[in-house]
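Dear Dr. H.,

I hope your travels went smoothly. While you were away I took the liberty of generating a structure for the chain from your last submission, since the lab meeting agenda had it listed for discussion. I wanted you to have the full record in hand beforehand rather than looking at slides cold. The sequence, exactly as received, is reproduced here:
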Amino acid sequence: MHDMASTTGQQPQPLSLREHKKRQAQAIIEETALRLFQQQGYEQTSIQDIANAVQMSSRTFFRYFASKEEVLFTPMRAILSAGMSTLQQVAPGESPHAALRTIMLSLAELYQQQRTSFLIRYRVAMQIPSIASIYLYTQMAVEPAICDALSSRLESATDPHRVRFLVAIYMTALRVALQDWLDDEVQGDLISLLHGYMDPLSSTDQWQQGGEDQQ
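The corresponding predicted structure, in token form, is as follows:
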């Protein structure tokens, strides 16, 4: 966890003492939970086990996290939320391709900054089908919000259905690059992998021309 609250493209703001202590406690719980998940297995580790290991009551645990699932996936959700703030850097009327490339590269950079933590979380999630499904859903759940935010910054003539399709394509590129990176034990550069999937995608001119051809 960090001592400064920040979003992509903005200067970090100092945390209050209360928030600083909360994030410290959350970081300790996360680190301890991940260690126990690795040692005992996710399903075999109870909330009481985690609470005992950090010397707090289960009631105190729930002040910081609602569930084990939240411990596992909160950082991913935070990164996806931070990626949304990247849209503030996108000029109104910017092409969908350029805007989405900016967002996806920002997300890849954030993932890469926490590579060790995300590798552990990925390994834990992939061992249990139900948790693996939540892992995938967590990544996909942000797509409607990206579509809405992106559409509001594009030209009014842009077809929202085509925007939705394009967002899905770029999010898929990120998911595949991320899985390759994690399966390879986070060796190499995630951003380079992502470029390899995004670069062949249609150019803005081709995208716009395709829309005109269908009219």
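Two observations you may find useful: The two ends are 50 Å apart (CA to CA). The chain is about 70% helix and 0% strand.

With kind regards,
E. W.
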